């Protein structure tokens, strides 16, 4: 497999795994609370296990932010008759919300330094919560989702500080999906070529 195909497969596999993870957390954690998981990113925490920063919307349109901790537990199951009983291990993932806030109580999101590829940012509630995403792109993706949720459900603009605004509020020519940018540029250049080909070429006398 070529390097290009390996990258495509890795990207596809990552999106597929992310989709499965979203469905699992929605099923076991948010749906019982009558909430819809809108956006999540994986974050780094000092405690053991995987951690996620999630944004969910309840039926009453209240938006919540939560730190979800995923712990892996291993249980032993017994099967067969008493004489020929066998044991097998079963690995299960357990999700629980360790911290919960309301988006309405979020007074500021501080990106720390827009000129540095920094995956950390600060959420200002009554206390400041430091969050470290797995990547800077994940950090911006989550903040964009919070901006949209605040505009839609809280009817207010989020207070942002130390972010590259071009990546928060894309212009008409910029999109957070790089493929759309490339496609737009190709179409633009193709249109220019068509226009040039239709122009009459002056003939020398």
Commentary on this structure:
This protein has 205 residues and is α+β, with helices and mostly antiparallel strands. Helix content is 35%, strand content 33%. It has 4 helices and 8 strands; from the N terminus they run H-E-E-E-E-E-E-E-H-E-H-H. It has helices at residues 3-30, 136-154, 165-168, 178-198, and strands at residues 35-43, 50-58, 63-79, 86-102, 108-110, 120-124, 128-132, 160-161. The strands form 2 sheets. It has a 4-stranded antiparallel β-sheet. A 4-stranded mixed β-sheet has the order 7-6-5-8, covered by helices on one side. A hairpin with a 6-residue loop joins strand 3 (63-79) and strand 4. The longest helix has 28 residues, at 3-30. Residues 172-179 have low confidence and may be disordered.
Keywords, separated by commas or semicolons:
33% strand; 4 helices; alpha+beta; four-stranded antiparallel sheet; 205 residues
- The radius of gyration computed from the alpha-carbon positions, rounded to a whole number of angstroms, is 24 Å
- Strand content range: 25-35%
Mean pLDDT: 81
Shape: globular
Tally of contiguous helical segments? 4
Helix and strand run: HEEEEEEEHEHH
Map the helices and strands.
Layout: H1 3-30, E1 35-43, E2 50-58, E3 63-79, E4 86-102, E5 108-110, E6 120-124, E7 128-132, H2 136-154, E8 160-161, H3 165-168, H4 178-198
Quick recap:
With 205 residues, this protein is of the alpha+beta class. Helices cover 35% and strands 33% of the residues.
């Amino acid at each position: 497999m070529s390097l290009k195909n390996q990258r495509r497969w890795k990207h596809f596999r990552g999106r597929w795994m992310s989709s499965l993870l979203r469905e699992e957390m929605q099923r076991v954690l948010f749906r019982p609370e009558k909430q819809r998981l809108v956006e999540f990113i994986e974050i780094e925490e000092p405690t053991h296990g995987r951690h996620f920063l999630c944004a969910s919307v309840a039926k009453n349109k209240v938006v919540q932010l939560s730190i979800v901790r995923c712990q892996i537990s291993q249980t032993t199951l017994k099967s067969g008759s008493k004489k020929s009983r066998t044991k097998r291990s079963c690995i299960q993932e357990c999700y629980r919300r360790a911290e919960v806030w309301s988006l309405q109580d979020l007074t500021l999101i501080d990106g720390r330094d827009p000129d540095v590829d920094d995956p950390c940012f600060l959420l200002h509630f009554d206390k400041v919560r430091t969050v470290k995403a797995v990547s800077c792109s994940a950090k911006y993706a989550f903040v964009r989702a919070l901006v949209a949720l605040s505009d839609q459900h809280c009817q207010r603009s989020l207070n942002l500080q130390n972010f590259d605004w071009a990546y928060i509020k894309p212009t008409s020519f910029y999109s957070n999906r790089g493929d759309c940018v490339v496609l737009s540029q190709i179409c633009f250049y193709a249109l220019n070529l068509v226009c040039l080909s239709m122009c009459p070429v002056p003939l020398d006398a």
